[in-house]
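Retro notes
What went well: the complex prediction finally ran end to end.
Inputs used:
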Amino acid sequence: MLTANSSQTIATDRGAPFVLTASERESIEHAMHHYADPRAATIDALKIVQANHRWVPDGAITAIADVLGVSAADVEGVATFYNRIYRKPVGRHVIAVCDSTSCFLMGFDQLYGALQQKLAISPGQTTPDDRFTLLPIVCLGACDKAPVLMINDTTHFNVTAENIDSLLEQYK
Amino acid sequence: MTSNVNIGLTNVGPETHPLTWRYTKAGKAVVEIKEYEAMEGYAALKKAVTMQPTDIQAQVKAANLRGRGGAGFPTGVKWSLIPMGADAGQKYLVCNADEMEPGTFKDRMLMEELPHQMVESMVLAAYAIGATKGYIFLRGEYVLAGERLNAAIDQAKAAGYIGENILGSGFNFELHVHLGAGRYICGEETALINCLEGRRANPRTKPPFPQQAGAWGRPTIVNNVETLMNVPAILLRGADWFKGLSQGKSTDSGTKMYGISGKAKITGLWELPIGTSCRELLYTLGGGMADGLGLMCWLPGGASTDFLMDEHLDLPMDFDTIAKAGSRMGTALITVIDDKQNILSVVRNLEQFFSRESCGWCTPCRDGLPWTVKLMESIEAGEGQEGDIETLHQLTRFLGPGKTFCAHAPGAMEPLQSALKFFPEEFKKGIVQKGIKA
């Protein structure tokens, strides 16, 4: 299984001081108000930190736990459960390639292979220049336009091995 | 980007296409509240607030609207199980917009192109069950849908459709878009509630059902996007009209979003009378198989449905008929598999998906699915051992209904068991013959 959440890939930055910025703290506290219990803002909080750091460093887990009033273990449990929360550093752009049924039928293997060759990395890895991280993802809900991949928050449709060059050029 | 919707359909109107007529008529997304209001928008809500909530529940029940998320549970019955009355306390309405069933892309379209219809449906359903707080549980990857829904909620608030004392009815309702962070299991309604509460999305024991004890222990109704988006039209035009939409093709009511992906000439989404056959869908609207390819088999409604064959093409695609044929209608978006594919590879890909997305809570699923993948990989590589096929058969029973905590593993077994049934020779070819190959 190749996801950024694999247990062996948890980064070891323990000891590094981590302090939430005032705006991160404010955003987390704002998110808490949407729910009956502050814990419900856990995913929001992880995303708020990730938006600033690209990933969620160890120190952020305890910092978020303090704001929400839950245990760090609970926050870590959530952080490692979901596909789109990264517990190890990722590159400037994350390429998430759909590997579910319809994309598989429409040429996922060739697309994934071409991306690995072009970037010279395996799934789960980041290019040495920190530009791209390559990951698989579950069905992106655009199966009529397969193969599909996401780069950061943008979904790209009908992506083929032939048109990846011009696509990747858009992400510096 | 425009969606491939209702290609080739003519006469798309409110009388025949309650889900998509506004989009088809406008020829683009209907995102502004004025545009939506000009097309019967929020008319159903205005009618609803003059009615008793239990009367709305009764009308939805009479219309026989069945859950469009895949299970087909009658929506009116689900609603009628929630406590009503002044002492019922805080209740929640949650829309399951965590669309992640491989091969399914209907809820994305409905929310992106018709965000106000989603919002109106939420307010209306919340009024019917007496929920003062609602969440649209949207998968995080649906960025455009999230933007459009949030904009629609802001416009609806400004227009007085959301907030305090809605349309002078005394009903208060708040609506929030909750973004997930990606896991297929969040589509299971109790796992979805755990995720909403900020926990790992492991399913919960049932009973209690969410109608009694759901989000934060309070009575909660969870409905799919497409299910909810039928409700305004049912209220405006009545239960009998909704029942008639199937045009005699099925005993089920209404229309259904049908779709095609895979190796068809035309792929896309169509709103059709429920009970439309796969043949009509694939060979009339979809233009048939892509050039030079024949049909090997098809999935009627997502990864967790049993394969069907050529002989099933003329069956009405409705909940009961497809169940009788040994599969499930599921989401009713078909995946078309051509005769140039290796069925073993297709099944292996499906099982990899389920294995990776298992939440790990119960042993049969957590251990059984990776085992299934390993067996499939070795058979696919022609390195299967004697007894592997029997083991796969056994796994379909050990991971079947009633043996696991939720429906994830039984869903995973559906394509496997049907592939074993329809393509036994392909599996046998993958087993190393004693004394022939090492």
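What we learned: The radius of gyration of chain A is 17 Å.
What to try next: split runs per interface for comparison.
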